[in-house]
Automatic annotation (TrEMBL):
Keywords: Membrane, NAD, Oxidoreductase, Transmembrane, Transmembrane helix. It comes from Physeter macrocephalus (Sperm whale). The chain crosses the membrane at residues 12-32. The keyword Flavoprotein does not apply. This is Epidermal retinol dehydrogenase 2 isoform X3. Signal peptide: none annotated.
Length: 309
């Protein structure tokens, strides 16, 4: 009898919490969710020397955050540092770091802790893409894809998450990709690394939730191709529903998601529908949809190995 009562109690608690969560979603669908203040927060961005990382740095500079910029290119990173100061940042720290090297990540992380303080917002943005068919892609490039696009997230989390937990305050941001949700022809290694990054970030999100570490937030961003130069030559078969994104739009939506503490952000919105369809459509029908959307030939004009870190 006691077991039945306990099961009933757990069921009612679950239903009550679920109802509250649904009501919260409905309210914030009508009323914009309040945005948190990130002035003074220490924001670390990997791959900040160009592209999306640079634009994210400029956005957080205008919001009054303390910036920690990591990039493998010293020249590009210093240029971002200069631009961030011009945009209004009062404290900007630029570090040359190859995120594919675990020892280097740990070494530079220790330097950041000593010279700047505890990172409170970690944005894992650095990434590379080969754009080669699986059997045409050299082993070293595939390994590099995993080292930068996925493994670097392991090392940065290990370096900065303990302090976030100790302070009960932190935000983990994973810049994954729509290619981390749906396989894309010609992007086997990239998709695999982005699927891994997504799965890792979501798993740590579940860990923090299970441990009731409510001060640790997670945002996982999955955009379609962005016009940063990384995917030059790529096309879309349906530009109205699945457009190649403007960098400014992608950055604006990403920062909004961080400030509103959204766990997930897919861009454009049609990605949500595609993921929903993927879960129940027969595989043959899914392939026909992918063909119609241009997924099979979207990489035909891509010129090869590029990076954004």
């Amino acid at each position: 009898m006691a077991r039945i009562l306990n099961s009933a109690k757990r069921l009612f608690i679950f239903l009550g919490k679920s109802l509250f969560a649904l009501l919260e979603v409905m309210v914030f669908a009508l009323i914009p969710k309040p945005q948190k203040n990130v002035a003074g927060e220490i924001v670390l961005i990997t791959g900040s020397g160009s592209g999306l990382g640079r634009l994210l740095a400029l956005k957080f500079a205008r919001l009054g955050s303390v910036l920690v910029l990591w990039d493998v290119s010293q020249e590009g990173n210093e240029e971002t540092c200069k631009m961030a100061l011009e945009a209004g940042a009062t404290r900007v720290y630029a570090y040359t770091c190859d995120c594919s090297r675990k020892e280097e990540v740990y070494r530079v992380a220790d330097q950041v802790k000593k010279e700047v303080g505890d990172v409170s917002i970690l944005i894992n943005n650095a990434g590379i893409v080969t754009g080669k068919k699986f059997l045409d892609c050299p082993d070293e490039l595939m390994e590099k894809s995993f080292d930068v696009n996925f493994k670097a997230h392991l090392w940065t989390y290990k370096a900065f998450l303990p302090a976030m937990i100790a302070n009960d305050h932190g935000h983990l941001v994973c810049i994954s990709s729509s290619a981390g949700l749906i396989g894309v022809n010609g992007l086997a290694d990239y998709c695999a690394s982005k699927f891994a990054a997504f799965g890792f970030a979501e798993s740590v999100f579940m860990e923090t939730f299970a441990k009731k570490q409510n001060g640790i937030k997670t945002t996982i961003v999955c955009p379609f191709f962005i016009k940063t130069g990384m995917f030059d030559g790529c096309t879309t078969g349906c530009p109205y529903l699945l457009p190649i994104l403007e960098p400014e739009y992608a950055v604006r939506k990403t920062v909004e998601a961080i400030l509103q503490e959204k766990p997930y952000l897919y861009m454009p919105r049609f990605i949500y529908f595609i993921v929903f369809l993927k879960s129940f459509l027969p595989s043959k029908l899914g392939m026909l949809l992918a063909e119609y959307m241009g997924v099979f030939n979207s990489m035909d004009g891509f010129s090869g190995h590029k990076k954004k870190d």
